[in-house]
């Protein structure tokens, strides 16, 4: 992965990746969890302080920071970013849900009661 990200010094450009070493999977997979937390906050009509989105975004940023620290400490040798980012984001979301007593709702993806305006059966 490092050879692909840096372009292997062959004179050609490598595949463009965010900040030259973080791959698309390191952005997309935790991003889905952060998007889930935003959607859950929106459906539950939670504000930023009582929601999960700000916490998930902060945990993602901290996991990314720890990834870069580990990469620099290991002299540029490959280190999976998901090894740090996923435990930070998922651990924060699960521990916050457990503390608030909403872990079962988060884990089973049970959504707050909100009828769909496009469904005719729910309006009758």
Automatic annotation (TrEMBL):
PANTHER family: SIGNAL PEPTIDE PEPTIDASE, SIGNAL PEPTIDE PEPTIDASE-LIKE 4. The keyword Transmembrane applies. Keywords: Hydrolase, Membrane, Protease, Transmembrane, Transmembrane helix. The chain crosses the membrane at residues 15-40, 52-71, 77-96. GO terms for cellular component: cytoplasmic side of endoplasmic reticulum membrane; Golgi-associated vesicle membrane; lumenal side of endoplasmic reticulum membrane; lysosomal membrane. This is Signal peptide peptidase-like. Signal peptide: none annotated. The keyword Amino-acid biosynthesis does not apply. InterPro entries: Peptidase_A22B_SPP. One of its GO terms (molecular function) is aspartic endopeptidase activity, intramembrane cleaving. It comes from the Eukaryota. It comes from Arachis hypogaea. GO terms for biological process: membrane protein proteolysis.
């Amino acid at each position: 992965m490092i050879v692909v990200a840096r372009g292997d010094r062959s004179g050609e450009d490598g595949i463009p990746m965010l900040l030259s070493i973080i791959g698309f999977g390191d952005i997309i997979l935790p991003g889905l969890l952060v998007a889930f937390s935003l959607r859950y906050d929106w459906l539950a009509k939670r504000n930023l302080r009582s929601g999960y989105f700000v916490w998930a975004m902060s945990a993602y940023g901290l996991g990314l920071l720890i990834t870069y620290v580990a990469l620099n400490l290991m002299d540029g040798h490959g280190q999976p970013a998901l090894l740090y980012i996923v435990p930070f984001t998922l651990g924060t979301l699960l521990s916050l849900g457990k503390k608030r007593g909403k872990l079962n709702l988060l884990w089973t993806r049970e959504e707050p009661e909100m009828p769909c305006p496009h469904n005719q059966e729910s309006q009758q």
